[in-house]
Specification:
By secondary structure, the protein is mainly α. The protein is about 80% helix and about 0% strand. It has 3 helices and no strands. It is elongated, with a radius of gyration of 18 Å.
């Protein structure tokens, strides 16, 4: 059981929102690539598929979500190690 549930929410909520943003962006990109493959506009060439994945850009929102996830994760670890209850 959590000893500090309110403080834990300060880390869980932003991390969860950032993870959902990243998963939604990955799902959207994967759906577009699958649609291109099934439509025949993108051949089943691994190099071309990799290039298509690399060309997918989530914009500044993706970078921000990754940073929020990293900061929340590191913050929760540091909180657990160094902050007294």
């Amino acid at each position: 059981m959590l000893k500090r549930p309110k403080r834990a929410l300060c880390f869980i909520v932003p991390a969860l929102l950032a993870m959902l943003w990243l998963l939604r962006a990955a799902y959207t990109a994967a759906s577009r690539i699958v649609d291109q493959i099934t439509a025949g506009t993108l051949p089943l060439d691994p190099v071309l598929i990799q290039q298509q994945i690399e060309a997918t850009n989530t914009g500044p929102g993706g970078n921000l979500a990754a940073a929020v996830l990293l900061v929340a994760w590191l913050g929760s670890i540091l909180d657990a190690l160094f902050v007294k209850p």
